[in-house]
Amino acid sequence: MIVIENVYVVTVSGAEIPSGYIAIDGDRIVAVGAGAYAGEGERIDGRGCLATPGLVNTHHHLYQWASQGVTPDGTLFEWLVASYRLWARMDAEVVHGAATAGLGWLAKSGCTTASDHHYIFPKGRGDLFDAEIQAAREVGVRFHPGRGSMDRGQSAGGLPPDEVVESSDEILAETEAAVRKYHDPSFGSMLRIAVAPCSPFSVSGRLMVESAELARSLGVRLHTHAAETQDEDEHCREQFGMLPVEYLESLGWLGPDVWLAHCVHLTDTDIQRFAATGTGTAHCPSSNGRLGAGIARISDLLRAGAPVGLGVDGAASSEMTPLAGEIRMAMLLQRARYGPTALTARQALELATMGGARCLGRADEIGSLEPGKLADIALWRVDGFYSAIDDPVVAFAYGQTPPLARLLVGGRTVVENGELRTISDQTAAKAGSAAHHRLLQS
Ligand SMILES: [Zn+2]
Predict the structure, then answer these.
(1) Which of 39, 221, 299, 354 lies in disulfide reach of 367, CB 3.0 to 4.6 Å?
(2) How far is the centre of ligand 1, averaged over its atoms, from the C-alpha of 314 (Å)?
(3) How far does the centroid of ligand 1 lie from the alpha carbon of residue 365, in Å?
């Protein structure tokens, strides 16, 4: 038994507790309350700290740690075309190193559950999917990798060069094999697989439809990119005669088992369809800013009741973005566009926790601090400089994110005093740097 005590608890699901405790038995939370906990157990003193649920990252491309800083000023399509040439050369070693650094960096900014979207599998370069799963085991975070894919190369009217695409049959067989090998549906699972074709402009309609059928027959979730830029609207109109969300709906790609990255350019009808079908959005504000994609209609989605989580997106389109920082970025961008009440600090924190849990289909396990849920907990130091602000949630969300005192994943310490404890900071940083050099020199 572990007891975190004397801590300000933001449960997210219920009332905040200004001075209370969280009791943990094994990988579960068994009690949350005000005052002192009467039972036995190892004590963690949470004085001066804010306890939040561990943060959930709903969109990433971990391999991109190895190609950060490429095309720093291009549009999405320009950036993609330049990046594909590099990505075609990656191998399992690059992916393992990049994922180690990327997941370590996420943990250091409060992330306890991370999804990933890996969609490039160059032939003869080792088992790239297994490489990132190994990295997640070493870092110690809950992992939701999506087996991605592209089958529409340039010769078929798509954007990626032919050498990075696979055939639809190959993709479906490999995806099914990955789900059967790795997916663990049990309560408290550390590893769940999603089916994740890359995007409507790199994947055929047939593969989108058959991917959805496959995922539903295997009982796993669906993920892809949607409505990220205006270029994509034009591409979809030209190629399919409809807007991106209309196209996705025609392929069976809206529903409570689907979450979509970006969703910047949504119509009022799209928003209603997301809410009615329970389709989730992975909001990636830094990436949207970096690529000039626009500001997503998050406050409208929330008002309609649609699930929304936060994501850092691949490190090549939002270099070194910390997940906790996306809480601030989401809040500021919504306010810049819609006014000062568009998104509160508490709503933004909810996106990063319960919102993400809903997107990943784990609202009954993670995303809030309550008995019966998994002990995925972040403790933030809101004393010192931060103590001049009375409301610790404002202290946490408005400026630079305060130091991370402790991160627990299923009751296990992954970060302590800002540093990784499962692997070391040095190991993670070196792995990322080595992956970058290996990719650029290959
Ligand atoms: Zn992405």
Answers:
(1) 354
(2) 6
(3) 25
CATH number for domain 55-359, candidates 1.20.140.10, 3.40.30.10, 3.20.20.140, 3.40.710.10: 3.20.20.140
Ligand 1 center from residue 196 Cα (angstroms) = 11
Tell me the two tokens of residue 85.
């040439």
C-alpha of residue 13 to centroid of ligand 1, in Å: 29
pTM (two decimals): 0.97
Give the pLDDT confidence of 47-77 residue by residue, as tens digits.
Answer: 999 999 999 999 999 999 999 888 888 888 8
pLDDT tens by residue, 307-362: 999 999 998 888 889 999 999 999 999 999 999 999 999 999 999 999 999 999 99
Tell me the C-alpha to C-alpha distance, in Å, between residue 9 and each of 13, 53, 57, 141, 158: 11, 9, 21, 22, 49
Give the count of beta carbons closer than 10 Å to the beta carbon of residue 18: 10
Measure 272 CA to ligand 1 centroid, in angstroms: 23
Residue 28 Cα to ligand 1 middle (Å) = 32
Query: If you measure from the C-alpha of residue 117 to the centroid of ligand 1, how many angstroms do you get, rounded to a whole number?
Result: 7
CATH topology of domain 2-53+365-420: Urease, subunit C; domain 1 (2.30.40)
Per the document, the length of the chain is 442
Q: How far is the CA of 261 from the centre of ligand 1 (A)?
A: 6
Place of tokens 């769940």: 192
Please answer whether residues 159 and 81 qualify as being in contact, where contact means their C-beta atoms are separated by less than 8 angstroms.
Answer: yes
